[in-house]
Design goal:
alpha/beta; 303 residues; 8 strands; 18% strand; Rossmann fold; eight-stranded mixed beta sheet; binds 3-(4-hydroxy-3-methoxyphenyl)-2-propenoic acid; 9 helices
Length: 303
């Protein structure tokens, strides 16, 4: 895992100019259409049309041989859609401005961001949709998406999604953080970096990261160990605002995880461990917090 030097995890303020449009960025937001099926039923026909919004960095070139990009899947919160991050096809937003500037200034390597959604036509229960989203991700999105875009997975039918896991991150805000913890628990084989923003793990019930932190931490550790991974195999950059309604759910969960040092090693930089919680000053349960966690967390993703 530790093939690189990671910067210090501590919170830093976003330079104001990072959130406004800079001249002539060559990045693009495009639409990725796919078909999906009713949740966990792999044998059901993929009859539902859905789409993701995709950020392609400046200079992205599908045809350049050997040119591979890190990929982050990014998922929205309640009552939102992928537009919350990326606006829409051909749009620019604070998120795209931030990514443009971080790449241009060398804080991160150029990456692809795939903004997906847990909304669907067949189930109205948001919590169920979040906890089942992984089936859609693994069965219907990743194989097609990573064949179409130049991620590090070259042969998406084989073991390549596993081999390339250090070049793949998952992040989400609020209900999207609920998804992120679920992906951590069940899809560690394909992802090595996780950035849950403003939300806790709901495997043991809604906001159970707050009400049952020790059980939640033990559950995560158990399933990570069961899938054969240890503390050196993954990193979690979690975060929320100091005035965030999810903070009382997230912080107890992180504190419980800190005690399970076989699996989670709390640290000031990922050179020394794999878990950090960034609490952003003067931030609530909103996009400002997500922007802050993206700014602070992304330079620590990918190995
Ligand atoms: C949390 C995780 C998710 C939380 C709230 C949510 C208050 C989502 C709420 C919603 O979208 O309605 O820890 O804490």
């Amino acid at each position: 895992m530790r093939n690189r030097k990671y910067p210090c995890n501590a919170y830093r303020r976003i330079p104001e100019e990072y959130l406004v449009k800079s001249a002539a960025s060559g990045s693009r937001v495009v639409r990725f259409g796919y078909r999906t099926r009713n949740r966990s039923d792999e044998h059901d026909d993929a009859v539902y049309n859905k789409y993701a919004l995709v950020y392609l960095p400046e200079g992205y070139d599908e045809n350049a041989p050997g040119n591979r990009y890190n990929v982050m899947y990014l998922i929205h919160g309640g009552a939102c859609t992928p537009e919350w991050y990326l606006g829409g096809e051909g749009c620019t937003t604070e998120v795209t401005h931030l990514l443009d500037r971080m790449i241009r200034d060398g804080l991160i390597e150029p990456l692809i961001v795939c903004a997906v959604s847990w909304l669907n036509e067949y189930c109205e229960d948001a919590a169920i949709n979040c906890l089942d989203f992984r089936y859609e991700l693994v069965n219907d999105i990743m194989p097609l998406f990573e064949r179409q875009y130049r991620t590090y997975a070259k042969d998406v039918t084989g073991e390549d999604l596993v081999r390339s896991r250090k070049h793949r991150a998952f992040s989400g805000y609020s209900m999207g953080a609920v998804v992120t913890w679920n992906i951590l628990e069940y899809c560690m084989d394909k992802f090595a970096y996780f950035m849950p923003m403003s939300g806790d793990c709901w495997e043991l019930g809604m906001t159970a990261g707050g009400s049952r932190p020790d059980d939640t931490a033990a559950r995560l550790a158990r399933d990570i160990r069961k899938s054969g991974f240890t503390a050196v195999d993954f990193c979690i950059y979690a975060g929320c605002g100091d005035a965030d309604i999810a903070e009382p759910n997230l912080t107890p969960q992180i504190n419980a995880m800190k005690k399970l040092t076989d699996t989670f090693v709390y640290c000031e930089s990922f050179n020394d461990g794999n878990l950090y919680e960034c609490i952003c000053p003067d931030c609530g349960h909103d996009l400002k917090t997500a922007l802050n966690i993206l700014y602070n967390g992304l330079p620590k993703m990918f190995g």
